[in-house]
């Protein structure tokens, strides 16, 4: 049943309005379902003009940070198309609500792939700058998103970046939105770099003593991760991709098998820790101890470590001890989820969401 | 010199206060300052009011705060190799803040190296552990500095595999106009460094950059393909990728650029052809061997003649010709323009045909030598620096090339930045509402518009009295 509030009738003239959301990661009074970019702009323009808070989301598979309470839930599920796949130019363009599973299926038909193991929508992938095992070689969405159509908090549609591999023609607005969790603006369409799918994938598991050889040696694996458990167990995994003739000549003490092995999925309370690139294992061990965590995964080469923890009692202490950003990614925490509040982020907020309607409280304490 | 300004009621003897911060020895004025008045975009020469060379981060921050407080426009500058005129002090009011003395290497751990903005690109790899290297390598890499690379998001020949400077920037320390310093980036989720890369010194100054290093490849092999028509050459670029090859570099040279190189000290012994491709494959040896085999097959299938250098000397010679193609232009002209618009790879043949027609229409020789895998054109257009008419002719030809690229889904600049050179295209490439969003970002960081004025964004053209400058700032639809 629709919740009637004084502004919802006006909103319903712009876009379909339905009941809001009441889940652990977001609470909204109503949800809206735009079917084109103009409707997204209209909703945000309306919200900005009427000081109504907005929480953009799609599949809700990977919520990050504190629970958001907003008047309007902006749902991207109907903007879900793959628009263009270009095997010659190695890019794909898709709407932000497109599930990565659908995108991967389309790419697979053309012998291409987007190197990530994220499950969720394109917009979610970019907005969370989601780390994955593939970040070792290919980087994160920050590196893979070539350009986008975005919408600012006050409803201005902007094309930023392009489908080309390089862009030095104005501020990289779309890159600033990557990882900003919908706090600065929203993606409506993304252009991403894709790669020819390797002829063969080979995965290996082995001892962590092989880490340096894998990271800095000749083999250049696509993925390397190390899992640390509280009891002291450690395991290293790696994935190689390439021509069959080449991969059969790999000489390593890893136990190899054909296919793609994935790192384990973390459950429960999750904390993300920033690391120097290439030193993720050291940071993971220190963070596991400082946070009294259960499991830590070092995504080698990415600068990111993720841990599952029983609770968040040690977060502040760990921040002081390790001196690096430690973020409460998922779970109820009554402290500061981020621990850092860059002035640059606030300046961008002022420029891109001047009324502060998007994802209130998501990023900075004391800032909309 | 005393100034009274509208943006802040502060009366400051700028010259004296700058000297107090950096020391008299590091303040340059008059004729000597003219040396800091131009960069590699040779069409425009500026007149810095003053040049200050701070010794360290602390001096730089104080200097920026002073200049901002006193409403003095400023231009941040490194080695002065910008090809878009981003470091030119255009109006004569700007103080040039030269960051060349901030050239320290602070640390190197894991896959990261932390350096000052004044460090030359080439020195990053030299300071890295022997098994790692810094990938972005613009053609001026022996002299261009990291601060400039970050500010322009510079590329180079190895972008196809390793990405542009953006992909190698992990973190930045930036000085903002209010004298605050912020360490941005190096964080999961939001990365505050993103907005500064390619911002051409218009949002703040880069004081320090943490850069990503890559493992050195075990093997690196070159394949040269010589083709009898440009269309097949362009087609071969996409075909290489269709074979599953991810080359480290794919460079294209047309007949004009080959002729120029062969007449110069960079002579490489290239075959007589309409165009050639130089492809570099690197990485794990068995993978590279297979890639080389496939690249050869692609070239042969498309009618190309294939050369694979048999020894390091031959390999170096082939690449020296490519890397020397810009300076080799000296054999045909003392000055030339270098553009860098970019198109999707599949548009290469079409845009190159159009470049040929434009060259014919303007009566100029255009040499094309460029990053083919990125679709990043580098038409070199020679002009006579003594003849304003010759320069104007070259500029107009260049503008048409940029427009032809944009019509084919491309963008005005892939790696040189907008600067002065392409400022006029901002009004063509972006809609008015999009430009307003860019201005909102500019104003959030630089409310008084004192950081690198008239570069990338401008409201009204600068009043310099220089005909070339006024031509460059004429919006396309206002042109005669």
TrEMBL record, chain B:
Gene3D superfamilies per the UniProt record, alphabetical: 3.30.465.10, 3.30.70.2740, Vanillyl-alcohol Oxidase, Chain A, domain 4 (1.10.45.10)
The species this protein was found in: Candidatus Marsarchaeota G2 archaeon OSP_D
Protein known as: FAD-binding oxidoreductase
Keywords, sorted A to Z: FAD, Flavoprotein, Oxidoreductase
Cofactor: FAD
A Pfam entry, by short name: FAD_binding_4
Taxonomic lineage from the root: Archaea, Candidatus Marsarchaeota, Candidatus Marsarchaeota group 2
Gene Ontology molecular function: FAD binding; oxidoreductase activity
Keyword Flavoprotein: yes
Domain FAD-binding PCMH-type as annotated: residue spans: 44-216
